Amino acid sequence: MLEIKNLHVKLAEEDKVILRGLDLTIGAGEVHAIMGPNGSGKSTLSYVLSGRDGYEVTAGSAKLLGEELLEMEPEARAAAGLFLAFQYPVEIPGVGNMTFLRTALNAQRKARGEDEISAGDFLKLVREKAKTLKIDADMLKRPVNVGFSGGEKKRNEILQMAMLEPKMCILDETDSGLDVDAMKLVSDGVNALRDAGRSFLVITHYQRLLDHIKPDVVHIMAAGRIIKTGGPDLALEVENNGYADILAEVL
Amino acid sequence: MAVLQAKADALAARLVGQEPAGQGWLAEARRAALARLAPMGLPGKRDEYWRYTNPTDLTAPEAPRAALFDSKGEPRPFSALDRLKIVFVDGQFDASQSDDLALEGLEISRLSEAGAQAGHWAANLYGVLEARGQSPVERPLAALNTAQAKDGVLIRVTGRPSKPVSLIYLRKSESSDATLHHCIRVETGAELTLLENGPAAARLSKVMEVDLAEGARFHHIRTQGRDHERRAVSHIFARIGARALFKSFTLTANGRLTRNEAFLEILGDDAVAHIAGASMGDGDFHHDDTVFVTHAAERSESRQVFKKVLKNGAVGVFQGKILVKSGAQKTDGYQISQSLLLDDDSQFLAKPELEIYADDVKCSHGSTSGAIDETALYYLRSRGVPLKQAQSLLVLAFLAEAIAEIEDEAIVDDIRDRLEAWLHRHEH
To answer: Does residue B385 sit within a domain?
Structure first.
């Protein structure tokens, strides 16, 4: 599904190297987790993959289903099946949540040469998906993320994911700012989307999220690279002992 | 002295051969306007009130030539709505293109015909609100309009007409210099929706006096035409009675020079006055909203919402004032003026003012200018929305607060379609 090879990235405006030869391969239907200390480059990885400005790829490649992502505009990456659930979802005053969802869905369908969804079908779909995430009609009507609580914003991200049905989902610290109940709700939303044709990359600081969204593979990232890869137990090890032992062992 | 002389000379040049003659209330009102005007002269570049907008093209003896604009057959605003159409071509009423001036709940007459009728209701309105609006700031172009207007409509609303009245201003001449003056009186409990669209003339001066009796409701929506070359100065003078509602929205796309002034006086308790504008300019565009709202009664509410989208050196101006007189307790006044600058060449000049003489009021104002939010743009694109569509969505979002002042959904849709089409034509 996703194949990243020897990815080197620096900040465009300063000479600060963030990713230093990152390799990562995620197969179809797999759930991978990335953990790592602050500043290891986890969020940068998610931004670079989704096409945010401000980063310069100096070497390497990132392919989604064999297509080079790094040469595409952000909207083309989305249409190709990539989705990033933001750590800090963006507020857009003046754009209704429904309008946003429908515009995004239709833009992607159009980019893939499909017909636009009818107003009726869209409404039915969004109501059904919103219900399972406990998103009420008021949240759908309000401007995108404006006045939403932290938990509501994250649920709204998952709603977008459910509507857009991407193939490769990246969750960037989706657990940050969530209470226990909200984390369960969000995790249930994610788990409902797990499918043989859909892969996940879960970026998190805490093992707790991985109790809900059970990963197949856990990676430890430090200083811009994956330094250790293992099974779910690796997350437990980090939770109990911190990163010091792993870092010492590798370096 | 030289400055004053220049103002007087400019006025004299405009008045050559235009001395109001004849009998009747209109001739009297014109003479009174001239008398008001004489000591003012015409506005000059050094006037404080014209600090951000050069009035030269508006005061010159002749209208600057303006090439005609070909809209290539695209539908005009409001064309899908059922409405009573009143058409002016280069500032002259055109009966052949207009509907019958009759609708239940309305009395409509032409200024040029009613001006000689003794006892016409408009005799108590024509030039009266304009004269009230000459203080505390002089508005000489409005007085000049009162002195010279040859055409316009006088609308008295006594009920709730079944459809809006639509004033359509066509332009066929490259040098037309039109002066239109309308009077509107909405009687107690009556309601009117007034639509205006079109460029009107190479140069247009328009005054609209609106008198709202107790509980009257007035909705005004205008689009000023996307004619690139036209120049216009417009004035709205409104007197708003107790529990009355005044709502005005203007869409301005393009135009070399537009100065829209409004002078709204809230004289009755519990009244509401909202005035909003969305304007978009690309290149040689200068748009000025100059608004003065007076609260002289209790528990009244006013909103001024002005949004401008500017690119390629376009200039936007906002001068807005809320005056709360002593005794106007529980006033709720709000004013916002914002510009979205789509490049580094465009300019927004704003002068927001509050003057408050009552101690129990709520007034707020804000003015900002900025670029498109790059983070929001990235967020939209990351969801698959193409760059240009995402930019348009954010521009429309920026204008949303102004558009929200229009109550009628069909009109909102029409305005939004026009904005989208403009954005599409002027993509970055």
So the answer is: no
Strands B165-170 and B191-197: parallel
Q: Which domains does chain A have, with CATH numbers?
A: 2-250 (3.40.50.300)
The H or E element that residue B257 is part of is strand B257-266
Asked if the Cβ–Cβ distance from A79 to B384 is below 8 Å, we say yes
Q: Is the separation of the CB atoms in B199 and B230 below 8 Å?
A: yes
What digits encode the pLDDT tens for the residues B176-233? 999 999 999 999 999 999 999 999 999 999 999 999 999 999 999 999 978 889 999 9
Q: Is residue B121 part of a domain?
A: yes
Does any domain span residue B388?
no
Q: Nearest residue on chain A to B392, judged by CA atoms?
A: A95
Chain segment A122-180, per-residue pLDDT in tens: 999 999 989 888 888 888 889 999 999 888 899 999 999 999 999 999 999 988 888 88
The answer to whether the beta carbons of residues A225 and A22 sit under 8 Å apart is: yes
SS3 B237: strand
Radius of gyration of chain A (CA): 18
Q: Any chain A CB within 8 A of the CB of B305?
A: no
Q: Confidence band (pLDDT; 50, 70, 90) for A79?
A: very high
Residue B382 has its nearest CB partner, among A74, A95, A105, at A74
Q: Which regions of chain B are under pLDDT 70?
A: 1, 20, 428
Q: Do B393 and A93 lie within an 8 Å CB cutoff?
A: no
Query: What ipTM was assigned to the predicted interfaces of this complex?
Result: 0.95
Strand A31-35 to B191-197 pairing: unpaired
